């Protein structure tokens, strides 16, 4: 049959395939120190096959570089050169450096995070990650303090993960005790309370739950219970994501 005849028999035109990029799903996971948000966000991203960004590592990297340069993390003029270095060298490898997780870097991170130029300097990387997650996967999970309120206010789903300060201090103490034998549970609790105050009391992007966030109190939950609870919410509020979940 000739091409002309084919055209007569089947006049229905097939739509041209479009190559418009598919919109990525964004899940925001915010919460205070040691609330379990990092573990939860990472497991969630793994199961959904999404990219994961620990945004705290960005502030930690700036804090670490400031300390390495001998600067004071509360002083804008000392932090600026460190911020410039980090912005030029932002890679997943840099953010995975275990030195960023030390106790003094945690303290310094919450100080640099108060500075307006630091927050402004890190917004672009986070938004770009959410919009175009590496690996061209279907979505991104970002954890931090201001993801649902400032970085991705239009996120498809927002979690605010909490636990009592005492429980958070117990978790952080367990995590740090072998590396820092001089640390006491009381000191960890004191540091956590101080950091909470700095994070939620600051003018720019205070660590607060977005109005539309699902609050998850993990005080009496282990990590797999928290994940189960989060997935129940994902299934009810974001079925597109849960349908694509990798069953592990
Ligand atoms: O793991 P942990 O919750 O202790 O800390 P983190 O998430 O690594 O964040 C370290 C510090 O960075 C926090 O105390 C905040 O001051 C700051 N931060 C922020 O201001 N905004 C974010 N999106 C993430 C972290």
Task: Explain this structure.
The structure is a single chain. With 248 residues, the protein is an alpha/beta fold. It contains twelve helices and five strands. The chain has helices spanning 3-9, 37-48, 56-68, 76-88, 92-95, 103-112, 116-131, 147-151, 165-176, 185-201, 223-237, 239-243; strands spanning 25-30, 51-54, 139-144, 157-162, 214-217. A five-stranded parallel β-sheet has the order 2-3-1-4-5, with helices on both faces. The longest helix has 17 residues, at 185-201. It starts with a helix and ends in a 5-residue tail after the last helix. The site of cytidine-5'-diphosphate has 16 residues, from helix 3, helix 6 and helix 10.
List its salient traits.
binds cytidine-5'-diphosphate, 10% strand, five-stranded parallel β-sheet, 248 residues, 12 helices, globular, alpha/beta, single chain, 5 strands
Determine the N-to-C terminus distance: 51 Å
Radius of gyration: 22 Å
Bound molecules: cytidine-5'-diphosphate
Element string (H = helix, E = strand): HEHEHHHHHEHEHHEHH
Low-confidence stretches: 1-9
Biggest β-sheet, characterized? 5 strands, parallel
Strand order of the largest sheet: 2-3-1-4-5
Mean pLDDT: 89
Quantity of strands, as a count: 5
Structural class: alpha/beta
Cα shape: globular
Number of helical segments with 4 or more residues: 12
**What fraction strand?**
5-15%
- Helical fraction equals 40-55%
